[in-house]
Amino acid sequence: xxxSPLQLSRELAAALPPLTDVVRRPGHYLLQPLTRTPFAxxxxxxxxxxxxxxxEAIREGDFDSLVNxxxxxxxxxxxASWSISLGADRSIQVARTExxxxxxxxxxxxxxxxxxxxxxxxxxxxxxxxxxxxDTELGHEMKNLLDxxxxxxxxxxxxxxxxxxxxxxxxxxxxxxxxxAALSYRIPVTPQTS
Length: 194
What we know:
By secondary structure, the protein is α+β, with helices and mostly antiparallel strands. Helix content is 52%, strand content 13%. Strands 3-2-1-4-5 form a 5-stranded mixed beta sheet. Helix 6 packs across helix 9. The longest helix is centred in the last third of the chain and has 29 residues, at 156-184. It is elongated, with a radius of gyration of 21 Å. The model has no long low-confidence stretch (mean pLDDT 81).
């Protein structure tokens, strides 16, 4: 038996996430393919990006406080995390571990804003958009060092992708409140008086 258009639209609406959830957590929906990539590929890509962005600073010893210590980066709206360390030879190590000396947690928009230099990490920290757990001294040092990387050192596709992600995140930040207000708007119903 054929379903009516009304039945089909109700079934479709039930299958889709609520629009307010998409507004609150766009990264969860837009970046989900990244989290489904095999971890070995994620780790190799992350090592390459870190080496391209921070290689000189690592060689100069700016990241020596990370030698044989682990920092965990958690992107909460993606349910994804990566633990990063430097070996004794200053080689970048990426692993999946639950134990780390410190953890920096935030949503994908916050990390995109930091990566694209659209917002200062301290601003996001004081707004509680990123949180540091564990060894806070190491966490603050790493948070500040992450802000020193040079996007121009990245391969062109990665540079363009981070620029796009940070621009979208910046646009999203400025328009999110207006969109949420519009979605919650209710047309006032007042009784007519004659």
